[in-house]
Specification:
Layout (H helix, E strand, L loop, with lengths): L9 H22 L1 E3 H8 L3 H13 L3 E6 L9 E5 L5 E8 L2 E8 L4 E7 L6 H19 L4 E8 L23 H10 L3 E5 H12 L8 E6 L3 E7 L2 E2 L36 H10 L6 H26 L3 E6 L3 H11 L14 E3 L6 H15 L3
Parallel strand pairs: 4-7, 7-8, 9-12, 12-13
Antiparallel strand pairs: 1-3, 2-3, 4-5, 5-6, 9-10, 10-11
The structure holds zinc ion (ZN).
The site of zinc ion has 5 residues, from loops.
Length: 376
């Protein structure tokens, strides 16, 4: 049941209006196109409220009238649909080894993508680099239609580890202050998120977990992270660091981790752990060396997934990340049959992401879109 503005204090009326706008855009994104009457039924809003919101959305270019549906008798209703070209969002994934970006339209379709190396990790250099990259894209796609910038990077944020930094993490982005400066500088909302959570949201918007309400996303990149989606929403925890899957202990007698514990999953399953392993082998680049690493990584992952399933009872777990597709596919095959858990006997316990290596930057681009189109 939706609250009507009349039942709320005046200060909340605009919040309700914004929420109702998002609710309508959400329905249109899910269903393609709907008439005003169908929108009223789907959202529970009154026809006058619907008419007002649609006019707002038409004026702002976020929806359009798609013509009349064929009808046997009477005047057929005009269909409303999301105007894909009505807005776009930039998603940018950054770590110490480089960046990649995706530009997505309001419907979540990719319209451009690219990659490169970052030019320095100091806060000032990074700020200039991020601002220049965004402004170049905004100039090309129209600053007025920009929904914002989604910026993703390995977590955790504002955490104090005793040892060396998280693999791939850029110190200047592990606190939120640089993002506040960037927001002021480029004049649009900047959504900072850890790469795993962003990739999970991208997967929910347009991947194998499309509209799945309870799932866990395993992000394999320089480190390994996790994204938790519960009741259709990301679960971020108290400080935005929920899902730090890479620090799940799979062998307390294992190698020391930079978090201070020993035998964390990330010590076995991550691109940095693959390179470390290869460096200790006589022929590190060989197929045999990669196979040996995969066997150990798959075993560690399979142990960790039992805990995820028992803890969260997710509809599915998605394996993805910034690691090469072919490596993830081999890892997926290596995990094979899932170990027993509360999900024993269920179908589709583990799925391979189909969003490719840009899953995190794509997920980043969905953050501003979700902010505009999700009622949650
Ligand atoms: Zn650890």
């Amino acid at each position: 049941m939706l609250e009507s503005p009349a039942n709320l204090p005046a200060s909340n009326a605009s919040d309700v209006r914004r929420r109702n706008r998002r609710l309508m855009l959400h329905e249109l994104r899910l269903r393609g196109s709907l008439s005003r009457a169908e929108l009223a039924r789907a959202t529970g809003l009154t026809p006058p409220a619907i008419a007002g919101i649609i006019q707002d959305l038409l004026d702002s270019g976020l929806v359009r009238e798609a013509g009349r549906r064929k009808s046997a008798r009477g005047q057929p209703p005009i269909e409303i649909e999301i105007a894909r070209e009505g807005g776009y969002a930039v998603g940018l994934r950054v770590d110490t080894r480089g960046y990649d970006f995706v530009v997505s339209d309001l419907g979540g379709e990719v319209v451009a993508s690219g990659q490169g190396e970052i030019q320095g990790e100091e806060p000032e250099e990074l700020l200039e680099f991020l601002a220049a990259l965004y402004e170049g894209l905004a100039e090309k796609y129209g600053a007025g239609r920009s929904l914002g910038l989604g910026l993703v990077t390995p977590g955790p944020f504002d955490a104090i580890w005793p040892g060396i930094p998280t693999p791939g993490a850029i110190a200047a982005l592990q606190t939120r202050s640089l993002v506040e400066t960037l927001t002021t500088r480029i004049g649009v909302d900047v959504f900072l998120e850890n790469d795993a959570t962003a990739a999970a949201l991208g997967e929910r918007l347009n991947g194998v977990a499309r509209e799945v309400n309870h799932f866990f996303y395993v992000f394999v990149g320089e480190g390994v992270g996790g994204g938790i989606v519960m009741k259709g929403e990301p679960y971020r925890g108290e400080s935005g660091n929920a899902g730090e899957f890479g620090h799940l202990i799979v062998d307390p007698t294992g190698p020391r981790c930079y978090c201070g514990n020993s035998g964390c999953l990330g010590q076995y399953l991550s691109l940095s752990s693959l390179r470390q392993f290869q460096a200790t082998q006589p022929d590190g680049a060989s197929e045999a060396a990669q196979e040996a690493w995969l066997a150990s990584a798959a075993r560690a992952l399979s142990l960790a997934l039992v805990t995820v399933e028992n803890l969260l009872d997710p509809e599915m777990i998605v394996l993805g990340g910034a690691a090469p597709r072919q490596l993830l596919a081999r890892l997926f095959d290596r995990v094979g049959e899932m170990r027993p858990s509360v999900r024993l006997g269920r179908q589709r316990r583990l799925l391979l992401s189909d969003l490719g290596e840009r899953s995190a930057s794509y997920g980043a681009s969905t953050l501003p879109i979700i902010a505009v189109t999700s009622p949650f």
